[in-house]
Amino acid sequence: MDQLRNTLEKIRQGWDDLEFSNLQRKALLVLGIFLVAGSGLFILRGNSQEVVVAPPEIEITAVVAQVMVDVAGAVVTPGVYSLPINSRVIDAIVAAGNVTKGADLSDINLARILKDGEQVYVYPPSTSRGSTRTSTRVATPRKSGPIILNRATAKEFESLDGIGPVIAKRIVAYRNTNGPFLTLEGLLEVSGIGPAKFAQLKEKVRL
After folding, report:
1. Does residue 18 carry a pLDDT above 60?
2. Among 34, 123, 131, 146, which lies 20 to 30 A Cα-Cα from 19?
């Protein structure tokens, strides 16, 4: 404590011994205060320098949505194929090596967008509608079924009791537009088939 007091006393005596006017002494004092303050700010800024940490690099892998489709019937290589989403029926047939000679595509909407898990069935020549054409009209035989709902032609639907040519074509047209039936109850969406007719048909058809 005595040493600090002695030091301050020496500084005061040295200050009094300076041959400066009062104005010069005040200016020197202000300058000293600015120098001390500036040094303090510089030290504080140096100690509090912001540390910037680069964010981790994240690798982003593009994933293309796919649909799985079963292509069956009169195609070169039947099987299950993975196709980009929004692919169309024609894309599935091409993926299966295209159709075999004489295959019937008349009941297939080739431009329809595929749904995941559906089946595209191409009718072989033996079951094509054109193979049974004759010059004489023959009555369509009636049979009890079961009819494969997602494969049958309009003529095959006509073989069911209560289904005429008009409704048979509506069933095929609905299937071409909306894709294969997922349940038997999907028949109720076809114009002309109500609960009563569906009750008559549901034991005679299957998916």
Report:
1. no
2. 34
Neighbour-count burial of 111, counting CB atoms closer than 10 A to its CB (0-12 exposed, 13-18 middle, 19+ buried): exposed
Residue 72 backbone dihedrals phi, psi, to 5 degrees:
-135, 170
Instruction: Decide: 118 and 179 in contact? Cβ < 8 Å.
Output: yes
Q: Percent of the chain beyond pLDDT 90?
A: 12
Q: Write out the H or E segment, with its range, that includes residue 6.
A: helix 2-17
Q: Which pair of tokens denotes residue 202?
A: 């549901």
How many distinct structural domains can be found in the chain?
3
- For the chain, the distance separating the N- and C-terminal CA atoms, rounded to the nearest angstrom, is 104
* Parent domain of 105: 59-133
List the beta bridge partners of residue 73. Answer: 122
Task: Give Cβ neighbours of residue 74 (< 8 Å, ≥ 6 apart).
Answer: 99, 100, 102, 103, 104, 122, 123, 124, 125
Whether pTM > 0.90 for this model: the answer is no
| Euclidean distance between CA atoms 129 and 109, whole angstroms | 16
Per-residue confidence (pLDDT) for residue 14, from 0 to 100: 63
Residue 124: per-residue pLDDT? 82
Q: What is the CATH number of the domain that holds 101?
A: 3.10.20
Per DSSP, what are the bridge partners of residue 66?
A: 84
The pLDDT tens digits for 27-66 are 666 666 766 566 656 565 655 555 566 677 777 666 678 9
